[in-house]
Amino acid sequence: MIQRLSGLVLGSVAALALAGCQETTTAARQRVNAPGVPVSVQSITGAPDSVTTRFAGLLGEAAAERSMEIVPGDKPARFRVRGYLTAQPTEDGQTSLAFVWDVYDAGKKRAQRVQGESLGRRGGGDDPWSGLDQTIVAKAASESMDAIASFLVTAPAVEALNPSDKTKGKTAAGAKTAAATGNKKL
User: Fold this and answer.
1) In 19-153, at which residue ranges do the beta strands (DSSP E only) sit?
2) Max alpha carbon distance in the chain (Å)?
3) For residue 45, what are the contacts with CB-CB under 8 A and spacing of at least 6?
4) 172-181, pLDDT tens digit by residue?
5) In which band, very low, low, confident or very high, does the pLDDT at 31 lie, cut at 50, 70 and 90?
6) What end-to-end distance do the CA atoms of the chain give, in Å?
């Protein structure tokens, strides 16, 4: 019981720390396409495996709809992203699925943080994860990709950052829908 309670306290502290680092919050974003910018999803943490798997699949679909190229973690990528998910009941009886994405550049420096939340009906039980329906998860995945794509289309081109290395950031065209969910180091 003490271990579970300390885990809840540490989780709350971590969530507050993440909230204090807010840089960009999503709010009714317009859908943005970001073709030709290879991105690797390095990890999605915070949710049970079943939710993470479902979210990763929907994230891949949302990326494909935006012409984004999601590449495996071992392939060249212009940006690498790490995601964090949390779910909690709201005062009005709904469930909030919050997401935070840290976008890292090739130099392993955080280039952007995007975050937002998706609200939906609350399921039964005390576990907020059990209250998530497909609509909430799909909305969060879509809003995540809108936020990331918005950053990608405004980020300077790789060639502009390093004109002597024209091969960096060049990959085959086309969006891939596989999203990596392993906890890999950047």
Assistant:
1) 24-25, 38-45, 69-70, 79-89, 94-104, 110-121
2) 58
3) 52, 82, 83, 84, 85, 183
4) 333 333 333 4
5) low
6) 34
